[in-house]
Amino acid sequence: MRSTVYRTLASGLLAALPLCSLAASPIPATLDEYGVLGTDGKVLSLRGNTMVYDLAAPLFTDHALKFRTLTLPSGSTVHYRGDEVLDLPIGTIISKTFYYARDPARPGGWLKTAKSDGGEQIDLARHRMIETRILRRDSDGSWQANTYVWNEAQTQATLRRIGQDIDATLHDAASKTTNNLRYSVPNARQCQTCHAVNATNGQAGIQPIGPRVRYINLDYRYDQGPMNQLAKLATLGKIDGLPTNAADLPKPIAYADPKAGTVEQRARAYLEINCAHCHNAMGDARQSGLMLTPDAKGSALGICKQHVAAGSGGANLTYDIVPGKPNQSLLISRMEATTGQAMMPRVGRSLADQAAIELLRAWIAAMPGGCDNGH
Amino acid sequence: MHARTLLATFVACLSTQVLAMTPSEQIMEQFIDAKDGDTITLPAGKFEFTQTLSVSANNLTIRGAGMDKTILSFKGQNTGNGIDATGKKITFEDFAIIDSKADGLKVQNCEDLTIRRLSVDWTGPVKESNGGYGLYPVACKRLLIEHNFVRGASDSGLYVGQSEDIIVRRNTVTENVAGIEIENSLRADVYENDAYNNTGGILVFSMPDLPVIRNGAGTRVFRNVIRDNNTPNFAGKGNIVGLVPAGTGVMILANRDVEIFENAIVNNQSASVIVTSFYASERPIKDPNYEAHARNTYIYNNVMKNSGYAPAGMLKDIQSGMGLAGVKLERMPHVVHDGILAGKIGNIGELKLCIKNNAMSEPNQAFVNTTLEDAGFWSALFRLWKPKAYDAIPAEHDCTLPALPAVAAVS
Hints:
The structure holds two protein chains of two kinds.
Chain A: H1 2-13, E1 37-39, E2 43-46, E3 50-53, E4 65-71, E5 77-79, E6 93-102, E7 110-111, E8 121-123, E9 127-137, E10 143-150, E11 157-159, E12 164-172, E13 177-185, H2 188-195, H3 213-216, E14 219-222, E15 225-228, H4 229-236, E16 238-240, H5 263-274, H6 330-336, H7 354-365
Parallel strand pairs in A: 5-16, 7-12
Antiparallel strand pairs in A: 1-2, 2-8, 3-4, 4-6, 6-7, 6-9, 9-10, 10-11, 12-13, 14-15
Helix pairs in contact in A: 5-7
Chain B: H1 3-18, H2 23-32, E1 39-41, E2 45-48, E3 53-56, E4 60-63, E5 70-73, E6 83-86, E7 88-98, E8 105-108, E9 111-121, E10 133-138, E11 141-146, E12 149-151, E13 156-161, E14 164-169, E15 172-174, E16 178-183, E17 186-191, E18 194-196, E19 200-205, E20 217-222, E21 225-227, E22 248-253, E23 256-261, E24 264-266, E25 271-276, E26 295-300, E27 303-305, H3 313-319, E28 335-337, E29 353-356, E30 359-361, E31 367-369, H4 377-382, E32 388-390
Parallel strand pairs in B: 1-4, 2-5, 3-6, 4-7, 5-7, 6-8, 7-9, 8-10, 9-11, 9-12, 10-13, 11-14, 12-15, 13-16, 14-17, 15-18, 16-19, 17-20, 18-21, 19-22, 20-23, 21-24, 22-25, 23-26, 24-27, 25-28, 26-29, 27-30, 28-31
Antiparallel strand pairs in B: 31-32
């Protein structure tokens, strides 16, 4: 094993190397040191006090499938905080493995797959894991983010702090098209950009985005059958303060499902998970004045709001959203862009999310009014 | 620390050493792992990156071997800025950033920032797809930006946005749409810069719908050389700088308390100085806290020479009598005011645009009120312009204003 090689080398060079002291705890060099996921190269499976979960409204990342896990220290307690991210105990480990179905017709290529298989493992005969991102709650209460890149044999994932671009093809069987994509493993600073609690205070802490009751209050197909994810979480540890009546819990809006809500509700759900982590009053994009949080409205939401610092991403358009006119709305053109200054978000995709673009176009097309002067 | 975790620490450190890293990857890692108090020394050489270099730390210095010796190239990028940074007391000096897809160096939410002797360039002929901003501090406090060179930005070469207490001095900006732009900022001194061959030399703007600083106020533009800013506007049309006429020396948009003095403003084909409200953009204003007029503008002791000989954009339309009234101007005078009386302004004198003791030649006409009025729906439709040019400064602008204080020394 390569880690053995490192350890041998490490012991020989101990005196010569400086200590890394970025986090309160040292950063494991390999994923398996966390003890949450195990692989024999054929199947990725769970280890420890770990559950799989899914999000109703996920971030778009070039159609990658995602295998999310949450691991609690045994005997620990999770605190429910209403519509906030769950307060997870020290020692919690959240993992997110990005993977694709292998394309049998194109060696090294990947297949666009609408949904994962569910269940509590990844079949590596049919799938290729790219990276696993880890959020771990440290002894001082802070969250540490790191990403681990999988080897070709799918037997080990090693720490990669500087990120990595991976070129591949993605075949869409439905449309019989094959696109090139450049999958981008984020670097450790990019993790902070999206997960920052308060970007106005440069190095303030980060927190998870997904484990919010509104996103995870749904059933998952576990090996023993479907079960609500919060109920599953309650089997890992205690949940403090959770309303006993399930009807009192915030409900998710699965934006991809036309039956999940109105076009506006679905569009706003998409903007929240894909954009609002930066486009909020304390976020990395706050100075743009464009707020894509669920409570934003009017020019703060981009309606007849002139972009200010889009630079060459301005696309000859004046306003972020022109009611009734998706073709004149910069928001759409930035979602459609796959290169240059125009592209938004900057991190995590190289392809356009066509289904979401259609949803957002329909939302804007149905808005009343316009941006002509005098109105 | 347990023996096992200690070992893991060494393994983590070692892994980066064992997997042979390229010099570019080593630089990326230094940025990502920067800690408070660090100095990152960039060696001489050309380094290629496909990702943004991103850094967050306090008391940080990033220093190259010289702007012509240490070159960070982002030519292979798909998207993103060259460098993204945030923190308190950060210094960047002595290196070059070239060909980033978006902005060159963006620093946000910072305090006590120094940017010194950097070069930012988009190599090759200038074009709309070049990144928007060369040096781009935003939402920062106390900035010193000096001795830099910026070329080719499709929006602004050196752009300070929503910041406070700013010194921008002795920089060279060329072939950008805007050479230097101070936007929605408080207290800026812009002096001894050389701005040439841009579309507009130095701009002081205040824009609506910005959350950090809603209205810009208190900028002094002095002892700059602002010449030959006649590069055709290559910004996207939707960008506000896309409205800047090629050949603009200085432009003040909706800002309050601006002094322009002791500059040499020479060979700018549209006008030496444009002072305008936001209404002239013919765009709606939805921000209730926004002040759309330029107020308290004092222009004095400048040399203005050879301007207005070939106005571009909206100034061309005005000069050539495209408005409904068909009033033409022989040549665009040195100082242009939009003349819009919107909101609660009863007469133009209330805006306090004061122009005094400037040496103006070619043309000899000093001033024009373009009488754009409130470019609301009807005005925009009919373009009821009757521009009125004056040989000497008219009485309502022949005034003085108290001097603004200098920006306290920063860094």
